[in-house]
Each structure stands twice: as structure tokens, then as C-alpha cells.
Q: What sequence folds into this?
């Protein structure tokens, strides 16, 4: 099948309105590795005939890294401009694969005039599973394999989303193993608070290496993440430990897409 | 002369109370040096949070063993306070064990409960002293745990042990006197825990026993007055009271939600030619963006600084701290408290126009510390009394970035990329939709 990703501009020109907007985010748009997450999620949306659209070239940074870095001006410039576009298209519901965009649009946009139902793709996928649209497959690629899930701070502690990603992983019929620091005590990958965009401060170790060591100690062959920034940090960590041939880091959407044979 | 002990007691009570009252006023004044912030909404939810987190100590139980030990001291504190009520009334009215006639047969039961908790407080405080000084639990020995914070903890634990020992010795001596039918020492029945001590006291004559009993009684109550003053004067132990209002005024929104600065919204809307609500007087003075000193923080930030009992659970969870960076969320809170105390002292000594040319950011907290934060909320989640060090870090960052324009070069690059390319990386906005090429590859 040929996969489609209609833009809001096109749909509007045809007089159509999507049910849900897929907010791709900067990482999902520009980062080579994270583009695969975007593609995997869109394949799932296509397969399940979900009426969605993307902003395409009209999308812009949510302003999240600027806000966390302390640049409130730049954040609000981005936020208010984005809200004008989203409100212009009368968007009601947004799904995104980026916990940072998710947190900002869900929690920080309303005061600035942007009121939307914002869902992270882990919760979106869990809802599809609950509705029976995504099912456990017999003898899938990950059956019986050890998988460990790394909690994203901006899903977990920031928004209390701990169980949805784990429920999504259950569909793989894999063996879920937890790291010692998980859920409310999950260790950050090191990217948040705009650390992604600067060198770490002097210290004895990089945070992503500390976290990767913990993930590797579970002997899982797959580290599942739900955030493009965690993806980068953990992939770098796995490379740092020279385990990239044995251990893979996948996003939830990629795992589901693979399991569905997409 | 008959009323002499009562007069002394009343005088001590008044002196102790007036000093405590003065300390409370000082702390209240210092907290209110912070900016206004409305947290008067959602009373029901706030009460529930307070009951669960402060009274119920819900978050302590993430570490079950320390939580259980802490619970003993906490219950001991609350329950022994009922006994202090009797002691204070006895002191004022010159009576002895005023509650005996009122409570009758229930009295020995009450005292046994008090004594049980007194013993558990002694054992627990001893364990805590061992954890701090002999086992040297890591989180009690970080860089910010300098001599005073460590001494403060040891003083608190030692005083608690001392007070409980006085209480038990007083009861033991009292009971021996009761069995001998000494005057004034009305029969109450035996007490279990102090009963174990009576052999130590049998060798004394009545006069010596009365002296021991009175000495312990006075030491105990004077110790209580002194301890209460110590707690309110300048000790981390203030958490026993202030954690209640502090949890009541907790942030109720998702932890990931950072405040939006309304003064910035106004400017941004004017720049984008959007309608602005409220007065748009461009001559109105705009306050400082972000926080440089404690007076730029909110009253809630400052209340949190006074609520911190330096347990270090935040720092033990901080990914930056774990990997050797200078950031320690506990230090952020301790520095904030030390600085607001200093600002308060300056106010008292030199009046409100005095400027000591010092600030929280720079003289207490360094830029390196706040730059190490990943905003992961681990410290916020870990705090047993809902302190939010992250909010202070964010406000300090805002000052550094917006007022001083001093961001690391790579952040400046990220800012200019967002401004010009609408993405934090240097990609052309025209290439944003190029990911679609991968869709059907």
C-alpha cells in the first residue's frame, strides 16, 4: 500500500477536516533516526484508516527547548504563532510522538489561547489496542525477547503516564524487564531542560551513559523509548558501550509497526 | 514562697512563647519578601494533599525503613505533646499530675502509651545518629552538608533523646515515691517502661528522689521550651510545622507544566500585533525577568526553603548530581533559605534601602549548577514535603538568559535557529516536510 500523509492545507482546500492532527515535531522532522519514528507512526495511522493530517511545512518548533533554557520570550513567540495556525485550522485534537511537544502543547499552550485535546502516541496506541484495532500477533518478531522500557521524564513524572507505554509493549508478547530506576524514579536520559542542545556541565560521567549501563544490565535486547530525544541519548549510550550490534533502541511506534509487518 | 515555682514557670513560659512568636513573625516576614502568587484555589484538593503528604507522610514511604523510623519519632512528637499539656498545666497551677482525677483508670494507660513512644523515639533517634555519624549514609555527607547542617541534625536528635530520658526518669522516680506514699505523689498505678528503671532509683531516700523527680520535670519542660525556640530560630527542624502549609499550597498542576510569564505574553502579543487584554500602558515599569535574588522568587519558593529538612532525597535522585555535576537540588533550597535569612537580617539591621551587593545567583548558587539541570522532575517527585527546586532553577535561568543574555554559545545557536528556522537545529524550514520522502521508500 502507498502511505499517505495529507497536510492540513490540502485537506482544508478540499473542504475536509481531519479527526486528529499528527504533530511531528522538530526531531521527527529533521533528525534522521527520529524520522523513522514519524514514518512508523504514519504507517500505523494509514493501516488503521485514521483520519489524520500533518502540518507539513507549516509546522514550527513548539518553543519547548527555549522555555526550558529560560528564554521565555522566544518560547511565547513560537507558542503564540503556533496557536494562531492551529486555531486557524480549528484543531481540536493533537497526537504527537514527542513528549516534550506533548507536555508543552497540553500544559503550557492553554493559558496562551491554545486549547486542544493533546495525546501522546503511547496513549494513542494504547487506546487503539483497547479498541481491538491493534492486536497481539502470534509469533511476532519480538515474541519472548527481553525488552526494557525507558521512562521519558516528560511522560512519566511530568504527566503521570507510566502504564500506557508498557501496555503497548505487551502486544509484542515480549518479556518486559524493568530497570531498577523506573516509573517515578526513572533516571533521565540527560537530554531534557535543553541539555540536548549544549555540552554537559563538567562531571564524572555522562547521564546517558549512566542510564544506558542500567538498561544494558537488564540484558534486554531491545530498549524501548517513547521520546525522540531519549532515543538519541540512549542510542549514543549503546554506541559508547559498543553494543549497537546486539542491543537496539526502538520507539514504541516502530515496535508496533514492525510487529504489524509494516 | 509557695507560688515561687509557679511564677518561675509562668515567666519561662512567657519568655519562651514570646521568642517563638518573634521567630514566627520573622519567618513570615521573610517568606512574604517573595513575589505574590495566588494559591488560594481548590481548597478541597489542597486539604487532601496536606492530609496525605504532611499528616499521612505518603511520600516518605517510598523508602519504607526510614519512613517507619521517622513515623515513630513523628507519632512520638505528636503524642508526647499531650503529656506536655498536662505538664504545662501542672506548672501553671502548682498541681501534680492534674489529669489523674480526670482520667482515673485510663491514666496509666495514657502514660504507658506516652512512654512507649518515648522509648521508640530514643531508639529511633539513636539509629538516626548511627546512620548519620557511623554508617555515614551518603546523602547526609554531600558538599552542601557542611559543619552546621550536620551539627543541626545531631543537636535535634540528641535533644530529643535527652527530653525522652528526662520524661522516663521523672516517671520512674515518681512511681517509687508513690509506692512509698510520699506526700503530693498521688497513686497512679505502675507504668510499664519507666517501671523497668525503678531499680535504679530504689537506693535513694525520699528527699533525693523528690529532687531527681523535680530536676527531671524541670529539665524536661525547660528543654521543651528551649527546643521549640531552637526549631523556630534557625533550624531545619522547622519542617515539623511548616510542611503543613507547604503541602497545602503545593503545585496542583502536572509537574511538567512550567509557569508562563504573563508580562512576557503582553510584550509578545504587542510584537505580533495581537489584541492584548488589560491595560497596555507601555510606560508602566516592567519588573525583572526571572530571578536574581530571593526577593525575585515567589513566597511559595521561600516557604519551601523553610520547609526543607535537608534529607537529600532530591539530590540522591538528581541525574546531574549522580553523574558528578555540581548541581544539588538540596543545596538550591539551603542556599535560598540562607540568603533569605541574610536579606531579613539586613532589613532588621540596616533598613529597607540597604543593599549588600550580594545575590542568590552568583554569591550562593553558581551558573554551573543551574545549567546542569535536565528539568526531569526527579527532585520534585522525591521530596517528601512537595518542595519544587526546579521552579527556582528555572527562574534563575530566566534571569541569566533574558536579563543578562548570558547563555552558553550552543544555546544561543539553538535560540537563533528557532527564531530564524523555526527548529532548534540549523535546517531550512523549507526542508521540514522532507521526511515524507522516507514514507514510501
A:
Amino acid at each position: 500500500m502507498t502511505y499517505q500523509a495529507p497536510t492540513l492545507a490540502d485537506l482544508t482546500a478540499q473542504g475536509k477536516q481531519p479527526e486528529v492532527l499528527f504533530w511531528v515535531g522538530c526531531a521527527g522532522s529533521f533528525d534522521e533516526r527520529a524520522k523513522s519514528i514519524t514514518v512508523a507512526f504514519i504507517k500505523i495511522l494509514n493501516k488503521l484508516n485514521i483520519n489524520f493530517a500533518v502540518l507539513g511545512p507549516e509546522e514550527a518548533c513548539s518553543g519547548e527547548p527555549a522555555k526550558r533554557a529560560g528564554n521565555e520570550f522566544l518560547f511565547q513567540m513560537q507558542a503564540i504563532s503556533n496557536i494562531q495556525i492551529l486555531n486557524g485550522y480549528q484543531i481540536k485534537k493533537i497526537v504527537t510522538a514527542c513528549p516534550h511537544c506533548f507536555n508543552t502543547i497540553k500544559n503550557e499552550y492553554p493559558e496562551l489561547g491554545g486549547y486542544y485535546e493533546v495525546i501522546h502516541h503511547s496513549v494513542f496506541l494504547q487506546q487503539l489496542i483497547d479498541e481491538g484495532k491493534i492486536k497481539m500477533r502470534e509469533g511476532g518478531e519480538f515474541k519472548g525477547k527481553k525488552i526494557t522500557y525507558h521512562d521519558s521524564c516528560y511522560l512519566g513524572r511530568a504527566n503521570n503516564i507510566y502504564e500506557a507505554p508498557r501496555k503497548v509493549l505487551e502486544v509484542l508478547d515480549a518479556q518486559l524487564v524493568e530497570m531498577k530506576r523506573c516509573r517515578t524514579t526513572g533516571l533521565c536520559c540527560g537530554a531534557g531542560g535543553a541539555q540536548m542542545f549544549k555540552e554537559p556541565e563538567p562531571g564524572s560521567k555522562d547521564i546517558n551513559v549512566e542510564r544506558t549501563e542500567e538498561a544494558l544490565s537488564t540484558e534486554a535486547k531491545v530498549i524501548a523509548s517513547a521520546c525522540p530525544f531519549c532515543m538519541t541519548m540512549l542510542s549514543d549510550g549503546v554506541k559508547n558501550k559498543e553494543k549497537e550490534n546486539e542491543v537496539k533502541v526502538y520507539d514504541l511506534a516502530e515496535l508496533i509497526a514492525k510487529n504489524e509487518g509494516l | 514562697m509557695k507560688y515561687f515555682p509557679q511564677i518561675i514557670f509562668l515567666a519561662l513560659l512567657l519568655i519562651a512563647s514570646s521568642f517563638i512568636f518573634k521567630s514566627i513573625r520573622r519567618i513570615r516576614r521573610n517568606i512574604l519578601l517573595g513575589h505574590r502568587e495566588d494559591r488560594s484555589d481548590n481548597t478541597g484538593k489542597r486539604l487532601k494533599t496536606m492530609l496525605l503528604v504532611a499528616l499521612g507522610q505518603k511520600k516518605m514511604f517510598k523508602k519504607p525503613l526510614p519512613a517507619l523510623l521517622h513515623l515513630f519519632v513523628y507519632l512520638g512528637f505528636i503524642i508526647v505533646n499531650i503529656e506536655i499539656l498536662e505538664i504545662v498545666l501542672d506548672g501553671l497551677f502548682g498541681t501534680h499530675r492534674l489529669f489523674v482525677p480526670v482520667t482515673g483508670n485510663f491514666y496509666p494507660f495514657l502514660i504507658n502509651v506516652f512512654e512507649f513512644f518515648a522509648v521508640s523515639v530514643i531508639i529511633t533517634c539513636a539509629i538516626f545518629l548511627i546512620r548519620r555519624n557511623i554508617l555515614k549514609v551518603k546523602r547526609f555527607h554531600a558538599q552542601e552538608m557542611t559543619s552546621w547542617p550536620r551539627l543541626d541534625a545531631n543537636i535535634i536528635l540528641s535533644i530529643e533523646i535527652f527530653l525522652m530520658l528526662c520524661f522516663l526518669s521523672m516517671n520512674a522516680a515518681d512511681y517509687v515515691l508513690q509506692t512509698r506514699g510520699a506526700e503530693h505523689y498521688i497513686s497512679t498505678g505502675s507504668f510499664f517502661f519507666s517501671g523497668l528503671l525503678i531499680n535504679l532509683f530504689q537506693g535513694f531516700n525520699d528527699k533525693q528522689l523528690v529532687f531527681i523527680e523535680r530536676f527531671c520535670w524541670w529539665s524536661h519542660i525547660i528543654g521543651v521550651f528551649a527546643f521549640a525556640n531552637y526549631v523556630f530560630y534557625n533550624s531545619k527542624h522547622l519542617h515539623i510545622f511548616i510542611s503543613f502549609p507547604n503541602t497545602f499550597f503545593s503545585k496542583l498542576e502536572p509537574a511538567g507544566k512550567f509557569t508562563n510569564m504573563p508580562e512576557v505574553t503582553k510584550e509578545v502579543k504587542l510584537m505580533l500585533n495581537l489584541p492584548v487584554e488589560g491595560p497596555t500602558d507601555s510606560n508602566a515599569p516592567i519588573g525583572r525577568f526571572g530571578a536574581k535574588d530571593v526577593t525575585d522568587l515567589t513566597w511559595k519558593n521561600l516557604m519551601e526553603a523553610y520547609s526543607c529538612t535537608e534529607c537529600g532525597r532530591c539530590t540522591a535522585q538528581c541525574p546531574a548530581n549522580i553523574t558528578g555535576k555540581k548541581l544539588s537540588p538540596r543545596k538550591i533550597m539551603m542556599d535560598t533559605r540562607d540568603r533569605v535569612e541574610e536579606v531579613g537580617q539586613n532589613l532588621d539591621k540596616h533598613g529597607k534601602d540597604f543593599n549588600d551587593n550580594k545575590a542568590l545567583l552568583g554569591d550562593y548558587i553558581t551558573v554551573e549548577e543551574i545549567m546542569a539541570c535536565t528539568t526531569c522532575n526527579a527532585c520534585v517527585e522525591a521530596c517528601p514535603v512537595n518542595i519544587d527546586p526546579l521552579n527556582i532553577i528555572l527562574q534563575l535561568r530566566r534571569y541569566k538568559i533574558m536579563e543578562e543574555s548570558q547563555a552558553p554559545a550552543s544555546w544561543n545557536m539553538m535560540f537563533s535557529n528557532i527564531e530564524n528556522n523555526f527548529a532548534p537545529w540549523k535546517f531550512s524550514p523549507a526542508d521540514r516536510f522532507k521526511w515524507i520522502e522516507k514514507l514510501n521508500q
Chain B touches chain A through 73 residues (CB under 8 Å). The mean pLDDT of chain B is 94. Chain B has three domains: 4-31+63-248, 262-406, 408-441. Residues 289 and 402 of chain B are 6 Å apart (CA to CA).
